[in-house]
């Protein structure tokens, strides 16, 4: 999509249409990488997702600077084409990296055996809830 966008020229309807389709496809692809945090480390999905989004946010500050350097104050189609080609290269490299190194297996560091076990079963949750409920009832009875 980005390549078509790079060569679409000044046809505004075509450019907007291609951008909409490209963002739709990006959303469809991104959902697979977002759920991968839960696959590899259910106990630390929030932490891994936070690290991922922190790095993504940092890149969100860097990309406009890179595009500014590529455009260099001259907004020609050729300069914008170079910016889109840079995006295509980055998408391709990160996709290849993900395809070769991503996993859906739970990672060994998900459970830190010996230090603490962060896996909580449903029965543990119910027992903890019941214990808290009994403490609350005892407090209400003694106060009331």
Automatic annotation (TrEMBL):
Organism superkingdom? Eukaryota
List the InterPro entries.
MFS_Na/Anion_cotransporter, MFS_trans_sf
- Keyword Transferase in the entry? The reply is no
A GO CC annotation given for this chain: membrane
For the keyword Flavoprotein, the answer is: no
Cellular location(s): Membrane
- What is a GO molecular function of this protein? transmembrane transporter activity
- This protein's UniProt keywords: Membrane, Transmembrane, Transmembrane helix
Q: Where would you find the membrane-spanning parts of this chain?
A: 12-34, 54-71, 83-106
Q: How does it sit in the membrane?
A: Multi-pass membrane protein
Q: Which SUPFAM superfamilies does the record cross-reference, listed alphabetically? A: MFS general substrate transporter
For biological process, the GO terms are:
monoatomic anion transport
Q: Which PANTHER family match?
A: FI19708P1-RELATED, SOLUTE CARRIER FAMILY 17
Q: What is this protein called?
A: Inorganic phosphate cotransporter
């Amino acid at each position: 999509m980005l390549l078509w966008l790079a060569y679409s020229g000044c046809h505004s309807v075509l450019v907007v249409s291609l951008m909409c389709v490209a963002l739709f496809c990006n959303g469809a692809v991104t959902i697979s990488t977002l759920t991968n945090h839960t696959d590899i480390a259910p106990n630390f999905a929030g932490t891994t997702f936070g690290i991922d989004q922190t790095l993504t946010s940092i890149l969100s500050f860097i990309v406009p600077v890179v595009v500014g350097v590529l455009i260099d104050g001259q907004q020609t189609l050729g300069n914008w084409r170079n910016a889109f080609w840079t995006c295509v290269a980055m998408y391709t490299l990160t996709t290849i990296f993900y395809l070769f190194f991503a996993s859906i297996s739970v990672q060994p560091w998900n459970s830190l055996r010996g230090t603490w076990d962060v896996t909580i079963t449903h029965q543990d949750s119910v027992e903890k809830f019941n214990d808290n409920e009994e403490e609350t009832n005892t407090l209400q009875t003694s106060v009331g």
